Fold this sequence. Notes:
Blueprint: H1 8-41, H2 46-66, H3 77-106
Amino acid sequence: xxxxxxxxxxxxxxxxxxxxxxxxxxxxxxxxxxxxxxxxxxxxxxxxxxxxxxxxxxxxxxxxxxxxxxxxxxxxxxxxxxxxxxxxxxxxxxxxxxxxxxxxxxx
Length: 107
């Protein structure tokens, strides 16, 4: 079995990358966990949990990269990840749709 190389520069690079991307990763993981627990608590099926939880996680990852465009600090990404996990894919889509319709009507 091959082991990861024990080179200090590799670990330093990984540590720096993890420190820089931690809020984004935390948001995605938090969304997956909250979505899975929400589905289990609501009596959902294993199939639904295996599909929706990763969708919420990837949605949270994508949303956290857009926070800077809105002028929101990246440190708030876990909050948005938790909210996405709680609302689910359908709830997040409905909220985004309402927001976009409101913005388009203002133009």
